[in-house]
From TrEMBL:
<feature type="transmembrane region" description="Helical">
    <location>
        <begin position="176"/>
        <end position="197"/>
    </location>
</feature>
<feature type="region of interest" description="Disordered">
    <location>
        <begin position="1"/>
        <end position="42"/>
    </location>
</feature>
<dbReference type="Pfam" id="PF09815">
    <property type="entry name" value="XK-related"/>
</dbReference>
<feature type="compositionally biased region" description="Low complexity">
    <location>
        <begin position="1"/>
        <end position="14"/>
    </location>
</feature>
<comment type="similarity">
    <text>Belongs to the XK family.</text>
</comment>
<feature type="transmembrane region" description="Helical">
    <location>
        <begin position="358"/>
        <end position="375"/>
    </location>
</feature>
<dbReference type="GO" id="GO:0043652">
    <property type="term" value="P:engulfment of apoptotic cell"/>
</dbReference>
<dbReference type="InterPro" id="IPR050895">
    <property type="entry name" value="XK-related_scramblase"/>
</dbReference>
<feature type="transmembrane region" description="Helical">
    <location>
        <begin position="384"/>
        <end position="403"/>
    </location>
</feature>
<feature type="transmembrane region" description="Helical">
    <location>
        <begin position="89"/>
        <end position="109"/>
    </location>
</feature>
<feature type="compositionally biased region" description="Gly residues">
    <location>
        <begin position="15"/>
        <end position="31"/>
    </location>
</feature>
<dbReference type="GO" id="GO:1902742">
    <property type="term" value="P:apoptotic process involved in development"/>
</dbReference>
<dbReference type="InterPro" id="IPR018629">
    <property type="entry name" value="XK-rel"/>
</dbReference>
<feature type="region of interest" description="Disordered">
    <location>
        <begin position="466"/>
        <end position="516"/>
    </location>
</feature>
<feature type="region of interest" description="Disordered">
    <location>
        <begin position="146"/>
        <end position="166"/>
    </location>
</feature>
<feature type="transmembrane region" description="Helical">
    <location>
        <begin position="415"/>
        <end position="438"/>
    </location>
</feature>
<keyword id="KW-1133">Transmembrane helix</keyword>
Length: 580
């Protein structure tokens, strides 16, 4: 069976297993061994695992405070413009509040509908179990009718008995109440608030429950945190970023001492942008078992880094836009097109389909207008240095053009604004250096680097194996006519007959390479290559895959481990597809 692009989970069988993916959280700088010794292809479960701490709860409460302060100050400012008779300013301010909120609420409600809708004709996901040969069952799912096969020694994961009419009626009533509540919440534009509170509730439940339910609630908390971080990232760069530039432009255009309300609105938008970027990176690192979690000290350093860098960028935009409105629009569109093309050339692998990936790259292009955002695996030092050199040059040119239109001899206020732009950018670079040199999860930049993931028991390097396939190929190689005729290819002698298209492949070698396998607990094997960091794992962005994993995890007596497809299976599938 060929690899599915929709996130279906493939049936497990004997054979080499590859790069791991799992729900391992390390909130607050904590972590656990996500792979057993000598088996970097399997995510760990069964130990004490990560715990939800009170500082995680405080982080969510601070995120709620930032969310409400940003929205409240924008609405208050819009009402103030309306009462003062500035209808244009009122319309623009309100537009940047309502339109992004509607887009995010529709996306959030769509996720809720998919997560809460049951599959027609089946009480749950199709489940099958069989012996993995390593002391634990292997759980797999298929997009077909329910299939339950159990062997001796494997836990019974069969369908539950049909509920009585009274319990079915109560269940329907509860579902109706949940639907009504969620509809009301999203109509009130509070979808992110609900998800923040739900993530905090699930985290506290994981702290209070027993071991089995604790892991289940922790997984669900990580999924909810990933959802709300992605929604907030989209909303802040559609709402807070343009709102920040608009209000700063109005402040510069009016001149004199700034009013209190516009200053509060710009400050709230700036803090919201910086906080959302740091929170997104923290949740992303906490969700990956191949990366060390981000500590709260590192998160605060990221907040300060983005705070000052975005402040300098936005103020340079506002100064230029206050004099050259048309040219500012041309500059923004040109910069966005260049950045989007740059991201597309990097061949990102964040989404599950081509069109979703293009839309994601366009959103990242908007983010690159204001700040740096890593979207590619590997060392980002050169790319980040190039980006900030471009930003420094643009800030200097924009500020210089604005300053050239002022009166140099009498306007001392303009010189102060130029110094503010330069000093804010310098502070942003300073805190970026503090983060990478002192607070990066992998260790100091100039000192010894620690492994990317946490594998204290593993003698070898952490993370996926070196031969793991982490992204599907862009195209498949074709067989040329010379190859079909037996021409020399790759050092083979001309005239050598090519092997038949369909043939019985040899099984595993009689003396395989010794490899220590982890034997405890069930394994969920996913017929997809694992995505590279900084992308989310497939079970975080594919709703069907997440839904199935949660159902299997809840049905299993112990927390399952996740295994993604390895290069061995991928090569065999690609060779079969190519020859056919």
């Amino acid at each position: 069976m060929a690899a599915k692009s929709d996130g279906a989970v493939a049936a497990a069988g004997p054979g080499p297993e590859g790069a791991a993916g799992g729900s391992r959280g390390g909130a607050g700088g904590r972590g656990e061994a996500a792979a057993a010794a000598g088996d970097p292809g399997v995510t760990g479960a069964g130990g004490p695992g990560p715990r939800y701490e009170l500082r995680d709860c405080c982080w969510v409460l601070c995120a709620l405070l930032v969310f409400f302060s940003d929205g409240a100050t924008d609405l208050w400012l819009a009402a103030s413009y309306y009462l003062q008779g500035h209808r244009t300013y009122f319309g623009l301010t309100l537009l940047f509040v309502i339109l992004p909120s509607l887009v995010v609420q529709l996306l959030s409600f769509r996720w809720f509908v998919y997560d809460y809708t049951e599959t027609a004709g089946a009480p749950g996901p199709p489940i099958s179990t069989k012996d993995s040969g390593a002391g634990g069952p292997v759980i797999s799912t298929k997009d077909s009718a329910v299939t339950v096969r159990t062997k001796e020694g494997s836990p019974d994961l069969g369908p539950r008995p049909e509920p009585s009419s009274a319990s079915a009626y109560r269940r329907r009533c509860r579902r109706l109440c949940v639907w009504l509540l969620q509809t009301l919440v999203h109509l009130l534009q509070l979808g992110q608030v609900w998800r923040y509170l739900r993530a905090m509730y699930l985290g506290l439940q994981s702290r209070w429950r027993g071991e089995r339910l604790r892991r289940h609630f922790y997984w669900r908390m990580l999924f909810e945190s990933a959802d709300v971080s992605m929604l907030r990232l989209l909303e802040t760069f559609l709402r807070s970023a343009p709102q920040l530039v608009l209000q700063l432009s109005l402040l510069v255009h009016r001149g004199g001492a700034p009013d209190l309300l516009p200053a509060l609105s710009t400050s709230a938008s700036l803090v919201s942008l910086a906080w959302t970027l740091a929170s997104y990176q923290k949740v992303l690192r906490d969700s990956r078992d191949d990366k060390r979690p981000l500590s709260y000290k590192g998160a605060v350093a990221q907040v300060l880094w983005h705070l000052f860098a975005i402040a300098a960028r936005s103020l340079a935009f506002a100064l230029f836009a206050s004099v050259y409105k048309l040219y500012f629009g041309i500059f923004i569109v040109a910069h966005w097109c260049v950045m989007t093309f740059w991201v597309i050339q990097g061949e990102t692998d964040f989404c599950m389909s081509k069109w979703e990936e293009i839309i994601y790259n366009m959103v990242v292009g908007i983010i690159y207008i204001f700040c740096w955002f890593n979207v590619k695996e590997g060392r980002s030092r050169r790319r980040m240095t190039l980006y900030y050199c471009i930003v420094l040059l643009e800030n200097a040119v924009l500020t210089g053009f604005w300053y050239s239109s002022r009166n140099f001899s009498t306007d001392f206020h303009s010189l102060i604004l130029v110094c503010v732009v330069a000093s804010s950018f310098a502070l942003g670079i300073f805190f970026m250096c503090v983060y990478y040199c002192l607070l990066h999860p992998n260790g100091p930049l100039l000192g010894p680097q620690m492994p990317g993931c946490i594998c204290p028991e593993a003698p070898g390097p952490c993370g996926p194996p070196a031969d793991a396939v982490t992204s599907p190929p862009r195209s498949l190689p074709r067989t040329t006519g010379a190859e079909r005729d037996g021409a020399s290819m790759g050092g083979e002698r001309a005239g050598t007959p090519t092997p038949p298209v369909f043939q019985v492949r040899p099984g595993l070698p009689p003396t395989p390479v010794p490899r220590t396998l982890r034997t405890e607990g069930p394994v969920i094997r996913i017929d997809l290559p694992r995505k590279k960091y900084p992308a989310w794992d497939a079970h975080f962005i594919d709703r069907r895959l997440r839904k199935t994993i949660l159902a299997l995890e809840y049905s299993s007596p112990t927390t399952p481990r996740l295994q993604y497809r390895s290069i061995g299976i991928s090569q065999e599938l690609l060779e079969y597809e190519t020859t056919v």
